[in-house]
């Protein structure tokens, strides 16, 4: 049985097709406003807010129909990004990511994240 909210997401946003619901937050940073998208458990996208049309295109290519829900500090990830810009560079290492891409691309992202911060 679907809740009323799930039916609205399914039929209004998805036009009868399954919809991937993602969470969206905007973060003010020293380098500009960032657009962060999560799936509730993983960071899926972090880009400049000015790049929203391109980010939306990539998200739709990856997930199909999507519904973005504005969410303040989803899973505490926004705070971790803010802490990074405040000088706590290790704070982002604890954010689980969902990179998508091919198996090879995922392996590259994992290898890059495994490099100790002190070596960068």
Main sheet properties: 4 strands, mixed
Radius of gyration (CA) equals: 16 Å
Instruction: Tell me the CATH topology.
Output: Double Stranded RNA Binding Domain
* Spatial arrangement of strands, main beta sheet: 3-2-1-4
Gross CATH architecture: 2-Layer Sandwich
* SSE topology string: HEEEHEHH
How many beta-strand elements?
Answer: 4
Number of helices: 4
Shape: globular
Organism: Ktedonospora formicarum
Protein name: Methylguanine DNA methyltransferase ribonuclease-like domain-containing protein
GO molecular function: methylated-DNA-[protein]-cysteine S-methyltransferase activity
Domain Methylguanine DNA methyltransferase ribonuclease-like: 27-97
What does this 3D model show about the protein?
With 120 residues, the protein is α+β, with helices and mostly antiparallel strands. It has one domain (4-119): Methylated DNA-protein cysteine methyltransferase domain (Double Stranded RNA Binding Domain), CATH 3.30.160.70. The protein is 36% helix and 23% strand. It is built from 4 helices and 4 strands. The chain has helices at 4-13, 52-63, 77-85, 103-114, and strands at 20-29, 32-38, 43-48, 66-70. A 4-stranded mixed sheet has the order 3-2-1-4. The longest helix is centred in the middle third of the chain and has 12 residues, at 52-63. It starts with a helix and ends in a 6-residue tail after the last helix. This is Methylguanine DNA methyltransferase ribonuclease-like domain-containing protein.
